[in-house]
Amino acid sequence: GQSLEQPSEVTAVEGAIVQINCTYQTSGFYGLSWYQQHDGGAPTFLSYNALDGLEETGRFSSFLSRSDSYGYLLLQELQMKDSASYFCAVRGGGYNKLIFGAGTRLAVHP
Amino acid sequence: EADIYQTPRYLVIGTGKKITLECSQTMGHDKMYWYQQDPGMELHLIHYSYGVNSTEKGDLSSESTVSRIRTEHFPLTLESARPSHTSQYLCASSDSRLDVQFFGPGTRLTVL
Q1: A23, A30, A46, B2 — which has fewest CB within 10 A?
Q2: Does A91 touch chain B (CB under 8 A)?
């Protein structure tokens, strides 16, 4: 089957850098996705890694190591508005649907 | 403007009522999904569809049903609502890139 593990909570201060890790188990692998969800809102797509290495999009970067079944989301120059839950996801169940991790709640403090 | 819509946004209803949650997308996506999510918890896939007349049950057992008669429309129906159905229901769609899903704003359902 497929499973993902990520920390339940992370706390950081404004302006800092935070890394949210995700390890996965899957019988086949297409790529690792990241989504952001603010309280009361809907998830929004952040990034996708199909190949090893770092993908950068502004203040956010995502990294993948397929040999380690591991990835992370890196948030730089943290702002208060970055306080949200972050979900990693992989394809599962015949690779036709996404399986989401339990989510990491990020709290950014002044 | 291409988008994904859900109605109603909030619904409070009594036990035993039949309800339909609406989801429409104007992005021309073939694939659509329904997720159930309790506050602060993970997303659970309850139904998905790869196109017209194609529907599948997801990983979380659900007493709801779905239909896909038109590409842009993917309604979810509960024949007899119960308090255990109280949750947020999120609709999403994607094109051929399954890993990139676009979510609607959600319907927050409360069953008394």
Answers
A1: B2
A2: yes
Cα distance between residue B51 and residue B66, in whole Å: 12
Mean pLDDT of A35-55: 95
Chain B residues closer than 8 Å to A31 by CB = 99
The kind and range of the H/E element at A50 are none
Q: Dihedrals φ, ψ of B100, to 5°?
A: -110, 105
Q: Which two tokens stand for residue A75?
A: 């948030």
The answer to whether the Cβ–Cβ distance between A91 and B99 falls below 8 Å is: yes
DSSP 8-state secondary structure symbol assigned to residue B63: S
Structure tokens at B12: 């409070």
- What per-residue confidence (pLDDT) applies to A95? 57
Q: Which residue of B has its CA nearest to A84?
A: B40
Query: B57 CB near a chain A CB, below 8 Å?
Result: no
**What mean pLDDT do residues B68-87 have?**
96
Residue A93: the pLDDT is 57
